[in-house]
Amino acid sequence: MRNIVEKSFVVFALLFFADAALSLVTNPHRDLDMFDPMASDPVKSAVALSVYLVLLAFGLLQYNALIAAFQRNKLLVSLLLLSVVSASWSPEPASSAKRAVLLLATTLFGAYFAVRFEPLEQLKLLAVTMVIAIGASFACALCIPAYGTQPELRVAWRGSFSHKNQLGRFAALGVIVFFFMSKQPRSRSWFWNTAIVFALGAVVLSRSAGAVVVLVAVGVVFMVLRLFRLPQRFRIEAALHIAGARYWCGGAHGWKHGVRIQIAGP
């Protein structure tokens, strides 16, 4: 029972961190270029607090493994400490401190996800998250076009996300996850191949150039790694690192000014 609850929480948290649906529901017409991610949003704040409290509870159960993981990653710990300390010289210390706390929380989630689940379990949880988000995106775009399409560019889909580029990058990551799921023993390859088609469709319909770049880059890297006959696990990790980094760093378009404030001096 606990295992099911824990996995359900992880899928929900992944959807929350990907900004799938929640921001769209609370403010469907926001301009992402002018959007301030730190602006007051009681619904999102309540959900975030719930996620972090549950994460803390599950994290305490993995206390020893998490401590060992952070001890092995001293550079990461140093960067986290820098983000906290830099709030003291930031021109907006309160805002920077809040961002630092959010960074600590999301890093804790990543560490918990890594130490709690084996790589194949991680892949399966990512796959479930992708299926839900991409399925919801098709439903929004087809059934509620006012929500599922980009307001200023009606031909581009944004699905259950706040911006078409978020959908495109998420769908690109979905293509990669579904591809590796289809290669697993005893997997329903027909289902995952169908999921790949839908994910590719979401990439095309989002009109996101960045998503196409991600797919091409991952494809090239994957072929190079395959030439060297590296184990599949290594190829999976490399592909997900490239696509994931592009999604989480590039996708948070509205955070770019906040990061500058957080780590820069006056």
Task: Tell me about this structure.
- Strands 1-2 form a two-stranded antiparallel ribbon.
- Residues 31-35 and 246-266 have low confidence and may be disordered.
- Helix content is 75%, strand content 3%.
- A hairpin with a 2-residue loop joins strand 1 (149-150) and strand 2.
- The protein has one domain.
- The protein has 266 residues and is mainly α.
Task: List key phrases describing it.
single chain, mainly alpha, globular, disordered C terminus
The shape is: globular
Question: SSE order, as H and E?
Answer: HHHHHHHHEEHHHHH
- The Rg value, from CA coordinates, equals 19 Å
- Give the uncertain stretches in residue-range form: 31-35, 246-266
Compute the number of structural domains: 1
Question: Which percent range describes the beta-strand content?
Answer: under 5%
Question: What's the quick description here?
Answer:
The chain is mainly α and 266 residues long.
Topology:
Blueprint: H1 2-17, H2 22-26, H3 42-61, H4 63-72, H5 74-85, H6 93-116, H7 119-143, H8 145-148, E1 149-150, E2 153-157, H9 164-182, H10 189-206, H11 209-227, H12 232-250, H13 256-263
Helix pairs in contact: 1-3, 1-7, 3-6, 4-6, 6-13, 7-9, 7-10, 9-10, 9-11, 9-12, 11-12
